[in-house]
Amino acid sequence: MINIKNNIDKIKAQIQQACQENGRLISHSGLSSSSSPVSLLAVSKTKPAALIKQAHIAGQNDFGENYLQEALEKITELAHLPHLVWHFIGPIQSNKTKQIASNFSWVHSVDREKIVLRLNQHLLNDETHNTPLNICLQVNISNESSKSGVAINEVFALAEIVNNCDKLTLRGLMAVPEKSAENACYEQMQNLFEQLKKSYPSVDTLSLGMSNDLEQAIAHGSTMVRIGTAIFGERTNKT
């Protein structure tokens, strides 16, 4: 039987150690702030609401989902729990933007202008939604044809489009480096993030690092690591 609390505690200890080794700080809650720059995003795709509830009881509030319909069912089922923050981290189809905009606080996988404008327009049309949607631009840092993401040389143009949208807040960048990526790949993301911060005061998030590269990502400036398997166990559906 999976012990979610123990798994979360182990991950937070790893984060803390990586931060200490790289001269960075982390709060005991795992929530990011100016004095604790690395937060934990629990990736709960394909996992049941019952396990998310266990993670919430253990103090975890931020959850990442890849598949919209599955996520909406869990969001509805867990709506009674306080302080849950839902992050959409999967590829975005344009016909799904309305539901994503209405049900998530963060979107990490924005990679083209059409998606930006549709997310913003849905929120402009929704008079009941008063909170801006937090946006991270997904960068295809390893230039893999199988992965989504904007090219490095197109990041600033897309960032400007997000920044000009009334209902969106540009928060930073997200990337999924290839498994064998060298440090140079992470350095590119770190440099791109630092450049973006200089241009946009709202930028404070580098969503980089998963179970297999947590330490490497933190060493290169990640402010949010996305951990699924190490918390919830192997996925039953890996599509």
Automatic annotation (TrEMBL):
Alphabetical list of Pfam families matching this protein? Ala_racemase_N
Please list the residue ranges annotated as the Alanine racemase N-terminal domain: 37-235
Asked if Mitochondrion is a keyword of the record, the answer is: no
Keyword tags: Pyridoxal phosphate
Positions modified as N6-(pyridoxal phosphate)lysine?
45
Q: Which InterPro entries match?
A: Ala_racemase_N, PLP-binding_barrel, PyrdxlP_homeostasis
Q: What does this protein do?
A: Pyridoxal 5'-phosphate (PLP)-binding protein, which is involved in PLP homeostasis.
Q: Which NCBIfam families match?
A: YggS family pyridoxal phosphate-dependent enzyme (TIGR00044)
Family per record: Belongs to the pyridoxal phosphate-binding protein YggS/PROSC family.
The entry's protein name is Pyridoxal phosphate homeostasis protein
Q: Which organism is it from?
A: Colwellia echini
